[in-house]
Amino acid sequence: MKRSSADTRELLDGEQFGSPNGQDPVVKLNVWIRNIYEIDEQKFSWTGKIDLEAAWHDPTLVRDRQDGENWPDTDNELWPPQCPFVAGENKRWTPRLGIDNLIEKKAEETWYKVYEETKLHRHSLESPLVVFRTVIHGVFTFDFDPHKLPFDVQELPIRVVSYRTSADLSDRHKRRFARLVFDGRPGYPSKVFGRANLLAGQWDLDGEIKVYEGETSQRSSYCRYPVVELRVRMHRRASFYVFSVWLPNFLLVTLAFLVLTITCKEDNGRFFNLDALDSALGHAVQSASAP
């Protein structure tokens, strides 16, 4: 049974958010890394600023235009989080996106744009199109487990989750979540790092990106949310090994050699004890290489 066309926030028969062709709703994602301020290996967290953009098809916008609804100026107005615009008290459908590994939000800016037939966005989705964008400065968790060879390599994750079904159905077995899809256009990796500052200290970005699709862990008795995880790869800089590994080892070995040389000269002119020197050098190297 069709719903009344006067209720512009409700879908009519055959209409679907995200995708007009009857498949699962599709939400196209882009992520840019603006900055990486700190990596805390002890707390398994990294602090940075990310720019997340999502776009989806909203068929109810056509009927809103036909009914003469006035849309706000999307070029100038910042809109409330996860609510493109409000007509009366009914909010529009959104995929209700979240960052699953975000543990602290320091600052956030959020806004929306609506693209009509004559103002299509770059995404390959049918108009009318809603584009949601948020810039978040926050603290994100990660598993610190660097691969050792040839140099320490670590990945920083950004896990984007959708917490909203394509329609608010009473039967939970018929609920369909949006399908989150990262932008796969050529040259996208360069856009991820294009405006990002290089890491300070011992880490640097190497430009490799991995994308994983799946579901979150079970958070209730019946619901697992779709998640897409983007991982950016980084590696330790050569200066870390120079100043944190090789130079300390060299100084320890040199110091051990000098101490033994002075000790032998002061020991009543006895011969230089090579066995003692070998033993001291071995202990120095072992101490320097211990974690």
UniProtKB/TrEMBL annotation:
InterPro entries in UniProt: Neur_chan_lig-bd_sf, Neur_channel
Region (Disordered): 1-20
One GO cellular component, as annotated: membrane
GO molecular function: extracellular ligand-gated monoatomic ion channel activity; transmembrane signaling receptor activity
Alphabetized UniProt keyword annotations: Membrane, Transmembrane, Transmembrane helix
Transmembrane residue ranges: 240-262
Segments of skewed composition (Basic and acidic residues): 1-12
PANTHER family per UniProt: NEUROTRANSMITTER GATED ION CHANNEL (PTHR18945)
Protein name as it appears in the record: Uncharacterized protein
Species: Chrysochromulina tobinii
